[in-house]
Amino acid sequence: MNPVEIIRAKRDGGKLSSEQIKFFIDNYLEGEITDYQMSAFLMAVFFRGMNDDETFALTETMIKSGKVVDLSFINGIKVDKHSTGGVGDKTSLILAPLAAACGIYVPMISGRGLGHTGGTLDKLESIPGFNVNLSIEDYKRVLAKLGVVMIGQTAELAPADKRIYALRDVTATVNNISLITASIMSKKIAEGADAIVFDVKIGSGANLPDEEESKILAKKLVSVSRKFGKKAIAVLTDMSQPLGNNIGNWLEVEECLELLNGVKVDDLSKVNNVLAGAMIYLGGKVKDISEGEKIAQEIIDSGKAFGKFLELVKEQGGYVEYLNAYKKLKRPEFKSEFRALSGGFITKMEAHGFGMAAIDLGCGRKKADDKINFLSGIVLKKKYGDKVLKDDLICEIWSDDIAKNEAGKIRINDAVKIEPEAPPKKELIIDILE
Ligand code: URA
Fold this sequence. Notes:
The protein is α/β, with parallel strands linked by helices. It folds into three domains: 3-49, Up-down Bundle (Transferase, Pyrimidine Nucleoside Phosphorylase, Chain A, domain 3); 79-324, Pyrimidine Nucleoside Phosphorylase, Chain A, domain 2 (3-Layer(aba) Sandwich), CATH 3.40.1030.10; 332-419, Alpha-Beta Complex (Aldehyde Oxidoreductase, domain 3). Helix content is 47%, strand content 15%. It is built from 17 helices and 13 strands. The chain has helices spanning 3-11, 18-30, 35-48, 52-64, 91-101, 120-125, 136-146, 159-170, 177-191, 211-227, 249-260, 266-282, 289-301, 304-315, 320-324, 351-360, 402-415, and strands at 79-83, 106-110, 148-152, 195-202, 231-238, 246-247, 334-339, 344-349, 377-380, 387-388, 393-399, 416-419, 429-433. The longest helix is centred in the middle third of the chain and has 17 residues, at 211-227. The two termini are 41 Å apart. The model has no long low-confidence stretch (mean pLDDT 96). Bound molecules: uracil. Uracil (URA) is lined by residues 84-85, 111, 114, 179-180, 183-184, 187, 207. Residues 84-85, 111, 114, 179-180, 183-184, 187, 207 line the site of uracil (URA).
């Protein structure tokens, strides 16, 4: 087979056979197909899409690019959660230790920042020493010991996603149902979970901003999970504005520490507890999601979830003293403020604009080998629907370069709108597919 013919076929809207898809992915991993050819292929898929058979073949090939972990030696239900990607979306760091503190095993393989959205691995790596690259043996050992483990794709687990994900991040080829499905499912099947909760984001900050497309994605994730014999629930949640108040890797870890220590952040707490509730339900510990939601808050209030998070950080090489001292840690050198230009109500706080601003500040990558600035980011002081007076502080902007702050401010200016009338309330939990 010739890679150029495969790219051309997809570019022209053709349907690829499973053999062609396998050839393309396998040869990419072997180094016989280059990054520029894979980028062209991804762009062709982005524009032309893939049908169900092609999506399934891509998912299967990506799973088979590595090993599938057998966790049957652990006597208990293994449940994971995966988000389709958002801005300020930090729930994995809270609900993984939280579900483990409820007696559920949580084997979690996550990704890095993708497009304008943040990634769990980058957030974890903002904790000095935290190792997301465990061998399969260590992955199993930590899971069996603590009930939770959080790693990334490796040379052994979902290696195709590791390489393709990094390329999609910087080639504007994230937002496609088939690519997202194959990317997420290859990690979820490889990790060995029995059941999965999907957080499918809807709104400007979602990887699929079109609501109908996000709903199709939710159904697809659930149906592909079933094909692989996994139980699944998809929770459709609002991502029209950033989730919680902090955006940026370390800033998001800080917000998680606050929440794990009992602070409530309206939208973040709600979304977190519903997702955790769904995990606890799939783990067989409660009769429905709402009972799981209540238990999730009790486990947070008891301090057990925080305790489990500290155990996890320690076990994976992270510097626990750094977390304990988080209130005293320094911020980046430059702080700017974005203030209300007029009084009124915040009627728009577009998550996509804030995500792009965060990338300008160094929280994400513009090229595959860019180094992230873990400390930079944005702290929101107001949210959608809040009443503001002229000059009220809407957000703080932090980075190591004042020019980056200024670039971020321009994005934020476009992302925020203030109008005289209060806007309609938005539903946080839009739907749940079981
Ligand atoms: N999360 C992933 O792991 N992959 C995607 O493509 C989007 C979100």
